[in-house]
Amino acid sequence: MPAGPKVLIFMALTLAITLAARSAWALPALFALVVGGYLVAGLGMRDLLRQVVVVRWVMLVMLLAQLVFLPPLVAVANTGRVLTVIVLAALITLTTRIPDLLDATERSLAPLRRFGVNPSSIGLLLAMTITAIPVIAGFAASIREAQRARGVPLRIGTFVVPLLVMALKHSDDLADALVARGVE
After folding, report:
1. Can you tell me the distance from the alpha carbon of 166 to that of 164, in angstroms, rounded to the nearest whole number?
2. What is the pLDDT of residues 86-117, one digit of tens each?
3. 2 within 8 A of 96, measured Cβ to Cβ
4. pLDDT of residue 184
5. Where are the domains positioned within the chain?
6. Dihedral, 85, 87, 88, 94 alpha carbons, nearest 10
7. Is the Cβ–Cβ distance between 124 and 105 less than 8 Å?
8. Where is the signal peptide (predicted)?
């Protein structure tokens, strides 16, 4: 399938996943639909599980942070929605070349130029977003591996603080690179 229809389907499914909060059965049904997408694409359950494993620590931190402020059922549903969208986004990126995805996004947003929208900037933002999730997940995995090697038990404070520092350093480096290239 071409990148353009994939982006439209992604947007529609993401909206459906976001609105699935009011129904107990909708989120599992939508996740099953995403699983079906992996199977139809010929990727299989191993690729799906690999995507879940990559973001497991980010999801854990997200869940724990929400449990502080929200009822458990709401926190689990929110985390499930985010995980479903991440796995769906991974399906799109696994089956579509990133340049094709960015070109389709920029082409579809071109009519909005007359309203002051810069499709190239939005395409760049999309590219950075697509690459940020695996980078942050990689930071989380590295931190946990280093802690295991030192025998440090998993505690939210000893995990989140280094993850936050690494994520902020990465975003600062990324901002410096964009400014050096004249993107503001």
Report:
1. 5
2. 888 888 888 888 788 888 888 888 888 999 88
3. no
4. 64
5. 3-180
6. 140
7. no
8. none
Residue 49: name the closest of 17, 20, 91 by CA.
91
Q: Which residue intervals of the chain are DSSP H helices?
A: 3-19, 26-40, 44-54, 56-69, 72-95, 98-109, 119-150, 156-180
Sequence letter at residue 83: L
pLDDT digits (tens, 9 = 90+) for 43-90: 888 888 988 888 887 888 889 989 999 999 888 888 888 898 888 888
Residue 68 to residue 88: CA distance in whole angstroms? 27
Q: Which single residue is written with the structure tokens 């094709």? A: 100
- What pTM value is reported for the model? 0.67
String of DSSP letters for 149-160: HHT----HHHHH
